[in-house]
Amino acid sequence: MTSAFVRACRREPVARTPVWFMRQAGRSLPEYRRIRAGVPMLDSCTRAEVITEITLQPLRRYDVDAAILFSDIVVPLRAVGVDVDIKPGVGPVVDRPFRDAGDLSRLRPLEPSDVPYITEAVRSLVAELGERPLIGFAGGPFTLASYLIEGGPSKDHDRTKALMYGDPRLWHRLLGALAGIATSFLQVQIAAGASAVQLFDSWVGAVSPEDYRQAVLPHTSRIFAALAPAGVPRIHFGVGTGELLGLLGEAGADVVGVDWRIPLDEAARRVSPGKALQGNLDPAVLLAPWDVIESRAREVLTRGRTAEGHVFNLGHGVLPETNPDTLARLADLVHEASARTPA
Ligand code: CP3
Which is catalytic among the residues 11, 147, 222, 259? Predict the structure, then answer.
């Protein structure tokens, strides 16, 4: 029996709307903070038994319809030798940021043997999860390029866009290399048994639709096209991408992720036919009293019904200060409020 999550991604009928949460594992959970105590982030991402345990933690609390692999978008970059680390409270930082064509040699293709811990963790998770699907993921080309070029998190992505506008030839070579690495990283996860994949191009909302089409879409299209033969649903997500939703779908995704800035019925109008939607409760709503959360979640479900398929999620990751009990209650509410009576 195909899971409700995969069925919704394929725009097939479901008995109730499937739900999972971006960053459902992580700092909002005390058991996560315990297992991570004294272990650097990227170390925890290279130990199969730690990856497996952290991925499973939220499933013991929440009746979510999918697990997402515990990893990070910079894991494949580190695996090919890029000097990237994750600083607590900061995010990814790169010692020697990407500057010129000479730096392309630091981005060799990713081989499955570079990430044995991913294969091992995905295999053991798939065995453990049974019917429950595991979502694999990778970082999108713009977002990875931004960390490499800026050397760390950036609000406006100035240097990144300076390269995009100023040296399109080098930009396309860089994004081509990053797209290749993301493709291999996703293929490793699919080969080991992942049921779906999500491409997180989180910061691509920084560019205009015309620039997205020229500078990013060709690379993202290559990623999704390379995955098509695998037949697993492909989800494409970014923050602040209201003006890009049509293009995110056009790049070859089956499911378009929507942040909280645009209601799902409007998002459904912006994507072409044949796409499901994922989203889009503002993560900050979970910090409000329950009656507010409930009415906002019901609103998301109602608007989500205008899409050809809907996977309930937040508009971005779970905030670290979120009460886990609230997420448990929300998952149950989504299931109860969306239950369809069998025809
Ligand atoms: O969703 C999940 O439960 C899977 C785990 C996951 C992590 N990173 C674990 C993590 C996923 C899907 C990611 C992807 C990721 N990483 C993205 C795309 C998703 C998004 O949020 O838009 C981005 C942009 C990154 C880069 C990154 N890594 C950031 C911005 C941070 C946060 C920095 C901070 O400390 O505030 C990280 C670190 C990171 N990745 C943490 C976790 C649980 C926190 C590290 C810790 O626990 O100390």
Answer: 147
Catalytic member of 11, 65, 72, 117? 72
Decide if 23 is catalytic.
yes
Whether 234 contacts 254, CB under 8 Å: yes
Does residue 200 line the site of ligand 1, with CB under 6 A?
A: yes
What pLDDT tens digit does each residue of the chain (343 aa) get? Answer: 899 999 999 999 999 999 999 999 999 999 999 999 999 999 999 999 999 999 999 999 999 999 999 999 999 999 999 999 999 999 999 999 999 999 999 999 999 999 999 999 999 999 999 999 999 999 999 999 999 999 999 999 999 999 999 999 999 999 999 999 999 999 999 999 999 999 999 999 999 999 999 999 999 999 999 999 999 999 999 999 999 999 999 999 999 999 999 999 999 999 999 999 999 999 999 999 999 999 999 999 999 999 999 999 999 999 999 999 999 999 999 999 999 865 5
Query: Which pTM value belongs to this model?
Result: 0.97
Residue 208: left if φ>0, alpha if ψ -120 to 50, beta else—which one? beta
State whether the beta carbon of 250 lies less than 6 angstroms from ligand 1.
no
Phi and psi torsions of 319, nearest 5°: -75, 145
In sign, the C-alpha dihedral spanning 263, 268, 271, 277 is positive
Running DSSP on this structure, what letter comes out for residue 318? P
CA of 267 to the centre of ligand 1 (A): 25
Q: How far is the CA of 169 from the centre of ligand 1 (A)?
A: 30
Q: Please name the residues in contact with 210: beta carbons below 8 A apart, sequence gap of 6 or more.
A: none
27 is catalytic: yes
Q: Is 36 among the residues known to form the active site? A: yes
* Catalytic hit among 7, 11, 23, 303: 23
Q: For CA atoms 238, 244, 246, 247, give the dihedral sign.
A: negative
Mutate to test the pocket of ligand 1, among 86, 87, 280, 316 (most ligand atoms within 8 A of CB): 86
Structure tokens at 211: 């620039």
Binding site membership of 133 for ligand 1 (Cβ less than 6 Å)? no
